[in-house]
Amino acid sequence: MIRDLAERLRGGVIAELGVAFGDFSRFLIDELTPRRFDAFDVFTLHKSSGVYMGKDVQESLGGRAHLDHYRSRFSAEIEQKKLHVFVGDATKIKESDAIYDMIYVDADHSYEGVLADAHAAISRLKEDGILIFNDYIMADYIANFPYGVVQVVNELCVNQGWKIVALAIPHHRFDDVALVRA
Known about the structure:
Elements: H1 2-9, E1 13-17, H2 23-32, E2 36-41, E3 51-52, E4 55-56, H3 57-61, H4 66-73, H5 75-79, E5 83-87, E6 100-105, H6 111-122, E7 125-134, E8 139-140, E9 145-146, H7 149-160, E10 162-168, E11 176-181
Parallel strand pairs: 1-2, 1-6, 2-5, 6-7
Antiparallel strand pairs: 3-4, 7-11, 8-9, 10-11
């Protein structure tokens, strides 16, 4: 099933909502070789101090602003016009002229944020596209912060006819869940 999903997405049009340092962007680009990749983020990590995703924020950004770090990391892809950067929350997806084969949602984890991200993403997803949510877990048990991902995904499945086609369960249990329209 996962192999089928990956093959279906190879060479497609992909969006990532919430890119952080760009580690997962790099993975998606390297593994799926999309013909177009759109990165959406508010790009405010440089205003943070301490550790984020197990990395020292300031050290990881190399003293640069978050957006500058991301653009530098993906300068080749941006120059080739394979990667487009959108600054702002997930509603910026409506500014893109792309219709996506896959959208990976990993931005605002509050219920309201995930719901807004989901609706924005669905509006730009192909009819047979794949919608993947990161952190399918009730709360960040490390930072003791409640998440809304489980509730939104479950509502999509129960009330709007989406179905889960894949669930990735890493050792730390910040799961990924892939959905398609039923």
